[in-house]
Amino acid sequence: MVKSKICDWRSLDDNPIQIRVATVATLKRLLPTAITFGVKIKLLNIYWYAVN
């Protein structure tokens, strides 16, 4: 699994728990789009190899 590095330039006064919750919320929001994009690319690759 790939490790991800998150650069968060929020103020240091923010509670680390609040930052973590916001990061998790963002990842949950983006996950369906990332999965859909990956599936589309996979299907296009399968189609390309089937046609050629």
Layout: helices, strands, pairs:
Elements: H1 16-51
Model description:
This protein is an all-alpha fold and 52 residues long. The protein has one domain. It has one helix at residues 16-51. This is 10949_t:CDS:1. It comes from Gigaspora margarita.
Given the C-alpha coordinates, what overall shape results? Answer: rod-shaped
Return Rg in Å: 17 Å
Number of domains: 1
Q: How confident overall, as mean pLDDT?
A: 79
Number of strands: 0
Could you give a short account of the major beta sheet?
none
The stretches of 5 or more residues where confidence is low (pLDDT under 50) are none
Query: End-to-end span in angstroms?
Result: 32 Å
What's the helix-strand series? H
Q: Please tally the helical runs, counting DSSP H or I stretches of 4 or more residues.
A: 1
Strand content: under 5%
Structure classification: mainly alpha
Approximately how much helix is present in the residues? 55-70%
